[in-house]
């Protein structure tokens, strides 16, 4: 059923194998998956790669994790809808310019929802991420993971399951733009400043302010990448 993984992006190949088994009916809704350890052994990969793949499949609606019981197959009809929507958005949109249009459509409203729905725990998580990112920038490092974590935490704070799944599905596309922008001299410092403005709007529960702060952030990043607004 499962084969050793050979591709560079291990978690993506693991996702594809498990997803195919679900779609082919070899795993049925309600079935319990083997443990992370067993899956890692069968696939010939580290448990961390298996964990990342399972988390992604859970976000996409294929799996559910039950405390103390394990990971189980869900009815994946909703997941198909989410993936279809996400890939429709990205169909033939493989340039950074198109990517920023998609991000503006999704992330501005995501920031607005986060401001309206964020809990104290959400805000604390955002603050911790920005504090860590600030340390990295001060030390002359590029906070690539922390930048991604901030946007992901905003998605979680939006409390919109579909939006979170779509954002996860297009994460690799977003990463391309992020890698390009954060290598621009001075951009990491500016991104930190932008993120603090977004966070402040979230703290104030001001959806419109959060939306516009995110829009400003994306537009300035795009301008520095392409030399235009």
Automatic annotation (TrEMBL):
SUPFAM superfamilies: GntR ligand-binding domain-like, Winged helix' DNA-binding domain
Domain named HTH gntR-type: residues: 8-76
GO terms, molecular function: DNA binding; DNA-binding transcription factor activity
PROSITE patterns recorded: HTH_GNTR
UniProt xrefs under InterPro entries: GntR_C (IPR011711), TF_FadR/GntR_C (IPR008920), Tscrpt_reg_HTH_GntR (IPR000524), WH-like_DNA-bd_sf (IPR036388), WH_DNA-bd_sf (IPR036390)
Pfam families attached to this UniProt entry: FCD, GntR
Keywords: DNA-binding, Transcription, Transcription regulation
Keyword check for Transcription regulation: yes
Record-given protein name: HTH gntR-type domain-containing protein
Organism of this sequence: Desulfuribacillus alkaliarsenatis
